[in-house]
């Protein structure tokens, strides 16, 4: 099972981000509210103004905060409100460790594979088969561009998410998959393309044969373990 290092020491930027997003999550700061100024936040958190400034820039890029020049920084409202939960989720993902992202991906892949085994259609299987065959062809060619190999790998997992039959799960799972894509690419480069083909074949067989429970979880765990060990090399 993948593990997260509980001893990771937060950076000053993390401290600033955690405080502001925490205040939003708890309802102490809402749409249209003005943030304390840099000096006040620095004194409150016991850090310099530089990480406060960086945190506000990060929140602005994520769509949570807007800067009104000459007036200060405010929590976005109106058009920004509907995307606030997704923006906060994206922010947390961007500041997460590879181990945390892998563990989150494992949760989605394991459950999506189980649902796909129960709900998949012949069309779903055909899409998965095409992704694996494409990955095989690319793996045979030593000059295949890595971005094409990566696309074939990711397309296979997206096909599983779609076969799970729940559009909400598919959207969030794909969002997480996009976040871990650089590490998927590294696993292809480090551990070899054919190892990925074999792991995908096993997952495909479990879904094709409608296997659930331990058998289904085992195929996903093999894939995740390959993913994890690739990052440690």
From TrEMBL:
Keywords, comma-separated and alphabetical: DNA-binding, Pyruvate, Transcription, Transcription regulation
TM spans (from-to): none
Coiled-coil region list: none
Annotated ranges, domain HTH gntR-type: 10-78
GO molecular function, one term: DNA binding
InterPro entries listed in its UniProt record: GntR_C, TF_FadR/GntR_C, Tscrpt_reg_HTH_GntR, WH-like_DNA-bd_sf, WH_DNA-bd_sf
CDD domains linked: WHTH_GntR
Superkingdom of source: Bacteria
Protein name: FadR family transcriptional regulator
